[in-house]
Design brief:
By secondary structure, this protein is mainly α. The chain has helices at 7-24, 28-36, 42-66, 72-95, 98-117. Helices cover 81% and strands 0% of the residues. The protein is globular, with a radius of gyration of 16 Å.
């Protein structure tokens, strides 16, 4: 017997994560992290979410390249900044207490929702 949500729930949750990520170009982590936290520690959930989002992002990238929906002039500077930010974020994740990570993620989700409404 599996701990936490059953296998079909994991597949459904993964499908929802992929749909959100592909549709909006991101945001799948906002779905998958809370799902992963049902079985994993907060830090493990965030780290695992990165692995989960990688194949989703590659699949979406393939479609966007095929449909010519990318802006190459924006890609390089944003990719460089994102890569540096990801490195710093992972270092910070390892240093912070799990409770603080959970609160910060919740606050970020709330702020992102409020920003989108405005």
């Amino acid at each position: 017997m599996q701990k936490g949500w059953e296998k079909s729930g994991k597949v459904l949750g993964g499908g929802l994560t992929g749909l959100i990520n592909g549709l909006f170009g991101g945001g799948g982590g906002m779905i998958v992290v809370p799902l992963l936290e049902r079985e994993l520690d907060v830090k493990e959930a965030h780290a695992t979410a990165i692995l989960v989002i990688l194949p989703i992002s590659i699949a979406a990238l393939a479609v966007y390249l095929w449909k010519q929906r990318l802006a190459p002039s924006v890609f390089v500077p944003v990719a460089l900044g994102s890569t540096l930010g990801a490195y710093l974020g992972t270092r910070l994740l390892c240093a912070l207490a799990s409770d603080l990570v959970g609160y910060a993620f919740s606050a970020l989700m709330f702020l992102a929702g409020a920003w989108m409404l405005l």
